[in-house]
Amino acid sequence: MPGTLTELFFEALEKFHRDDAYQVKRDGRYQPISHATVHERVRRIALGLQELGLARGDRVAILSENRPEWAFADWACLSLGMTDVPVYPTLPAAQITHILVNSGSAAIFVSGDSQAAKIAEIRAETPGVRHVITFAETKPAGVDHTLAEIEALGAAVDSAPRAARWKAEALTVKPGDVATLIYTSGTTGLPKGVMLTHGNLESNVRTGASVLPFSLEDVALSFLPLSHVFERSGDYLFWIAGVSIAYAESIDTVPLNMSEVRPTLCMSVPRLYEKMYARVLENALSGGTAKKQIFFWARAVADKWADETLAGRTPNAFLALKYSIAQKLVFSKLKQRTGGRMRYFVSGGSPLAPEINKFFYAAGLTILEGYGLTETSPVISCNRPGIFRIGTVGKAFPNVEISIAADGEILTRGPHIMAGYYKNEEATREAIDPDGWFHTGDIGVFDDGYLRITDRKKDIIVTAGGKNIAPQPIENAIKTNKYVSQAVMIGDKRKFPVLLVVPNWEQLERWAGRRNIIWTQRSQLLEMPTIQAKMEKEVGKQTVGLAKFEAPKKIALLEHDFSIERGELTPTLKVKRRVIDKDYKALIDSLYVVTGDTRLA
């Protein structure tokens, strides 16, 4: 039977009585927040919101970095039958306007002064927002209430009868009610609001709890944005499993916070694992000859051990002995950097390089890679302990159907499929066919029941950090600059987006002539730092207002326009991205080499 997130909330409160349901770093140390405190604060925030006049069916936005108050606000909204609207804290003010207006948000929670300033900047354009509530202790201009004031309003009316009535009303929320609107980037540039119901998320969370092992000794470190469904659903899963959730101070402090919290579970996008892998290699290569030899010996031993183990065989005694020595000499240090207690990582958001996954497995750190989308609540498939194959995204979750269409596209159907795109029936019909199959836009195959993603059908770029970027609107904006003829953004599965630019030679040569620059061939111009700087400046003008993760970090200049003859353009002059990516691979790869090169942004 389908259930609700409010049922999950109260179920955990009745089942668990931890002193450290949540943990947050304050005054230089991690401090626990008990289940009892969570219960009281969520109830009083909910009652306070009612006192403001907010009611079932209202939409309430949350613009904040990860912190306990994010969860409190979320649970409070859900308990009142309201729909919350998470907003990425990294978004600039201009991109928040559409989300607040389209969703019809009546209120918004902000984490502090910097986020409050964004809302103050666009408040005149979002007349529907009646209340701005800050998690901070003070109210800057444009903020109507502090969270403490909302809780005080709730506390003033809190009583045993009122608390009982609040819980009873919370449990009348229906599985089909929309729990959240999560906005994702679309090819048009305007984000679409994904309607996820209580039943969508509850089914996915309960399924996760049934297939992934947890214990009351577990501690999870939460640092991916809670505005992304991956971390948010993971935190719901940890909550219902009785796992303590510790919030990282920021994405930059994750290594430090790992050593402080010593988590046993961690969810991340591939970028974290790539950074850890790069750091390990850098440390090994920067050491003396003996250190290098020991590292590569240990890696070779661990690789053989992994091959045997992944094939289902037991390593022989001699290999097991060498592996034990390799663990003590090399890999134990890597484990200590994660806190020394890590049972497993979960990876999602974008593909994880199989060689990196195998390296960590060989080192004794298991990464369970999964697959899903915001529209699928989010998990479609996932590797699990004992059901694990590197290079795949695992087997389908129970209650989740997966089918491969004739063109190779991955389709999925089940209780995890969104209710649709908010106020966008046409986009909903394009995504979900009459038989209920959601079209993912990804290409894949089954390998002995394990799903393997082989390609992307859509042009949407998903960076190694899990950020979704719609390239076409950005490219079109850049091409409006008079010095630009063609522009193609690259960045799928990579650390950051880069740009291939063909200059408008007529304009650029004229500019160079005015500055008495001498050249005989265009290729000579492309090699000049002055020309590179000029083009970076012009591109930068067109990317003002983009979120940091959307802006291209480097550009490469090309001498010739793309052509139909070389297969780079379709007959209707649309760029064939995969062809560009392949034909210019060496140049593109050079943009990701760590050097002293100038970067945009």
Walk me through what this model shows.
The chain is α/β, with parallel strands linked by helices and 601 residues long. Among the domains are: 5-173 and 212-268, ANL, N-terminal domain (Rossmann fold), CATH 3.40.50; 470-591, ANL, C-terminal domain (GMP Synthetase, Chain A, domain 3), CATH 3.30.300.30. Helices cover 41% and strands 20% of the residues. The strands form 6 sheets. Strands 2-1-11-10-12-13-14-15-16 form a 9-stranded mixed beta sheet, sandwiched between helices. Strands 4-3-5-6-7 form a 5-stranded parallel beta sheet, sandwiched between helices. A 4-stranded antiparallel beta sheet has the order 17-18-20-21, with no helix packed on it. Helix 3 links the parallel strand 3 (59-63) and strand 4 (83-87). Helix 2 packs across helix 3 (68-79), helix 4 (93-103) crosses helix 5 and helix 8 packs across helix 9. The model has no long low-confidence stretch (mean pLDDT 92).
